[in-house]
Amino acid sequence: MSEWHKTACNLCYVNCGLEVQTDGRAITRIRGDKDNPRTAGYLCQKPQRLTWYGDHDDRLTMPLRRRADGAHEPVSWEMALTEIAARLREVRDEDLAEGRPGSFAYVGGGGQGNHSGGGYGHALMRWMNSTRYFGALSQEKTGDFWVNGKLFGGQTCHTSEGVEDCDLLVVIGCNPWMANGFNRARNLVNTIKNGPDRKMIVLDPRRTETAAMADVHLPLRPGTDAYLLGAILALIMARGGADRTFLDTRTEGFDQVAAALRGIPVDAWIAHAEVERAEVERAVDVILAASAMTVRVELGIQQGRNSTLNSYLEKLLYLVTGNFGRPGTNGLHSWLVPLWGESRGQRSEITGFEYIGGLLPLNTLAEEILADHPHRARVL
Predict the structure, then answer these.
(1) CATH class of the region 159-332
(2) Interior CA angle at 232 toward 227 and 233, to 5°?
(3) Out of 3.30.200.210, 3.30.750.24, 3.40.50.2000, 3.20.20.370, which CATH number does the structure's domain 2-55 have?
(4) Which residue ranges make up each domain of the chain?
(5) Stretch 30-35: mean pLDDT
(6) What residue ranges carry the coiled-coil annotation (predicted)?
(7) What is the pLDDT of residues 103-125, one digit of tens each?
(8) Beta-sheet strands, E only, within 61-109
(9) What digits encode the pLDDT tens for the residues 270-321?
């Protein structure tokens, strides 16, 4: 019998309201929840594909246990959970008896929207006396977290965008038209495009759907974001665009930053990014004319070359111009329960990598398991 149920999407932190039609355990239809006060029936393309994610041909429908010959055999959930629990207890007891750190490595937990796995994962890690936590966040966002810690005093301080109230939206390394990322993204991008007093700048190598709607699109060469952002900031400084009232009352150490920005060889850096200086100047014109600019970034600069520096420079863009902590600008928020913590100087015994926000990068996971080390990971 078909039934409709209200729920929420967990594929990003916007958590759009959903209504799903079910037939037994199968989801048969998905639509936006028009009663949801935030998203009002809006959906991006990701939840519209939930039936495919849940039912595609490669999806496992039961636990598989590896046999001695390397092949896998289906087993019941009861058997799988019982055997996994027994093996985890055995490994935990061995670690305690040997006096070694927990051999358990945890991968998952998601981030942003899908927190439930992370909460259970943290509890299991504590029980296993382990600190090895890997996930999408540890590969994508740790540079951003580290910068937040230096700028705002805590790596769990997370910034958000005032897209609904801004008169200038700057989009760097993302495509909200396809990936959402802020509330009712397509509606808001359309609203900004059609608003006579609102503008949009996009920095992206590709002419994305969002870039095609922008007032200024800077199609930089991939991997040169730091050069282009540095050049833009240098031009803002040269034109007297720094908000000295905001900087003098709300920040420390800006004179050192200003000196570094003034030393940027603007023409050389713009040429390295392979964009036209006239278009960069036009983008700076729009930035300096804005009364409320907000900057939206994502993985395009957070997983690219110079990713940590990129995260610093994109934040300087709104801090130097004083577009912070007001409606329509960037600011800190409290609506995301973080799955990460603070850096404490701890490093992996195996790789020497520092735990940033309590996380280790996924590209070191194999070494944690395969290393010839008495404290290597034994369970994943």
Answers:
(1) alpha beta
(2) 100
(3) 3.30.200.210
(4) 2-55, 86-143+341-380, 159-332
(5) 95
(6) none
(7) 999 998 665 556 666 778 888 99
(8) 64-66, 72-74, 105-107
(9) 999 999 999 999 999 999 999 999 999 999 999 889 999 999 999 999 999 9
